[in-house]
Sequence to fold (335 residues):
Amino acid sequence: MSADQYELTNSNGMRVQVLGYGGIIQSVEVPDRDGVLANVALGFADVQGYVDHPGPYFGAIIGRFGNRIAKGQFTLDGVTYSVPLNNGPNSLHGGLSGFDRQIWKCREVEGGFALSHVSPDGDQGYPGELSVTVTYTLTGDNALRIDYEAVTDAPTVVNLTNHSYFNLAGAGSGDVYGHLMQIHADGFLPVDAGLIPTGEIASVDGTAMDFREPIAIGARIRSDEEQLLLGGGYDHNWVLRGAGLREVARVVEPVHGRTLTVLTTEPGVQFYSGNFLTGTFAGAGGAAYRQGDGFALETQHFPDSPNHPAFPSTTLLPGSTYTSTTIYHFATTNE
Ligand code: BGC
Fold:
């Protein structure tokens, strides 16, 4: 197994470590309001940890298709394709051997590095040879930028994301229920018992899904609303306002004062509150990860899009380039 590791640093002491295996963001060290550095990304101390515990997809590049495809089936140009069922009756995060388990090639670019991978035609059942490049750069003001690009030689579907879980008080320091979450979305996608979107876009108004104003993640997580019970907490796609690269979410950890602002070009974000972390393995700092110990904001097109023609399209045709950009901007506040 390749143990290649790449690093981004800046003059504020911020340091991001990325593995060639899965393109995994292994650690993100950022200062708090007193300048004290801590790693805020959940993960393992070495590659073997990720190989042994692939289920949470800590920090990984997700592809070819982020989140679920119902019954592992979709139809493109009249042909039905089957992709692996690795999540009950559905396909999750690209299948049994997704991009999170590939060894990516690295080359330096200005301000960072680019990881590339060629997924052969038929890989995990997906059509077309897909050539993917994911570029990580770090700015002087603590913005970690991820640019995704992909081209195909036959019609296919693509939905790439990064699966980092953050805890702005420090990975392994406990739960994130006191973090204040804000998501700039008026709607979200209700799901069924298999966490597949029903197709409806529901208003967040008057529900525990309303993050239009900052509110603690834990404030309503134990509400008996059906959607929270189905997800075991938050595990839903929010339908983001606006288009183009814009701010879509902001998270504040009030004790140490670290903040994370997420910007993306994507139409959706999966806010996942780490519901399936079970406390059965420990992370890099030696502490076991339990339910709610991290939050993920997975910028993406909507789950199961190939089976919902009304959702923004995830089809990629030969001659077109898939592009997507997400920025994780860290800062501090005295709020
Ligand atoms: C999914 C969760 C899943 C998690 C880790 C998230 O993107 O929505 O349901 O458990 O990834 O596998």
Notes: The CA atoms of residues 71 and 90 lie 4 Å apart. Residues 55-57, 67, 195, 235, 270, 272, 276, 298 surround beta-D-glucopyranose (CB under 6 Å). The chain has a mean pLDDT of 97. The first strand starts at residue 5 and ends at 9.
